[in-house]
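Continuing the batch. This is chain 6 of the set; chains 1 through 5 are on the previous pages. Same settings as before, nothing changed between runs. Recording input and output for traceability.
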Amino acid sequence: MLEIECIQPDDMDVQFAARVLQDLAARFDLEPFLFTRHIRLDPSLGRGGVSHPTLSLGVMHAREPDRFLSVFLHEQMHWFLCACDLSAVDAAIEEFRLGWMNAPDSSRRDEVGADEYSTYLHFAVNWLELDALSTLLGVDRDRDVLSSHSFYRWINACILRDTDKIAHVMSRHGLLRQDARLLR
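Output for chain 6:
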């Protein structure tokens, strides 16, 4: 069961987003992807989310449930990685940095993370997001949803192109959820 906290609870968009999130939780078995149950809906976040200290979601994507689900899963995967061996996370990030050295400058916020560390951390987060979407939406829709985002575009393009290569890095460092689908 999700604990949904609404910032501006009287706001119609926040109320709608809360219903959509509840509908998604009823429609899908989200249990394998829940690493925190306390979810804050915050209209000031727009289309995105923040993982910590409280998983917080903007409400703009609520009218597109698959994309809203994707943002929710993305933030949950940050929580998953925080529960992993952080030295393994750092080792994977270094491997991603060496394997994909042509990242755009971090000033291009629609393409990459806020800095180099964030960019390569998002290789792991976004791959885990794609894997969760694959489980819930299927292998065609997962790719459509991930590629539809207007943020992390370079990272997502790398993940969609190099899915198996990234999966092997994740596996080598023990960063896969037990039921990962995308490791071939």
